[in-house]
Amino acid sequence: MQKERLDELMVLKNISTWIIMIFLGVVISFITIKNIGNETIYGFVLYVISIIIMIWALIFVIITQILILIFKNEKIYFLNYTQIKIINKMEYFIIIAIADFLKIDKKYIRRFFIKNNNTAVESLNKKTNKKDILILVPHCIQNSKCEIKLTENIELCRKCGLCGINELNKIKKEFDINIFVANGGTAARKKIKDIMPKFIIAIACERDLIEGIIDTENAPTYGILNKTPNGPCANTIFNVVELREALKQFVY
Ligand code: SF4
Questions:
Q1: Which helix (H) or strand (E) holds 138?
Q2: Residues of the domain holding 199
């Protein structure tokens, strides 16, 4: 397993561990106060904690309902892009921590948040100059048997047509646009920091895509999911039509 994946797994496990520790801490505090025998303090603490839990639960339910509405109707209603980005981020980490704790498949949860992000990006209704756009693609799109090392310069591709890099070259030529093949999240973050794009179109699997979207603060990021018919991280494919449509929608 790649180091980056192990790190992400550790983060999620840490979140779950913290939730359990806080819960245990509250339970132990209750038992201790009850054993000391001070009914007034016990009652007061119970009251305060109940109120806090109820407020949090209420906020959580309201935000979840808003996100479900956005997902179903592909409309942002009274919210703006920044507000959706904030609530998407807040809910994502809570729900992923719970899903991780309950051992639920997180693929569909991630798709939900990617779709909501894309709805928010589309709601901006703006086109960006091609010079300020960056297309980020994962290295697993390149055929694993290809011997050419591609990152900065995808034009090194010999255009044999065995993988999606060939199509990316055509798109690069046609739209005269920046395309970067990232070897991982760190390389993608560095590229973004270096060239400071105003808009990003990212192609990746569910996990990398949503975590990259959440991570990127300064540029709206539109996500396109890649497909993994050969298993994760190997000879992945993407929908060229979807990428072309996104470019027509967001580039001038
Ligand atoms: S299309 Fe380009 S990158 Fe892909 S396998 Fe052929 S030469 Fe390599």
A1: strand 133-138
A2: 127-250
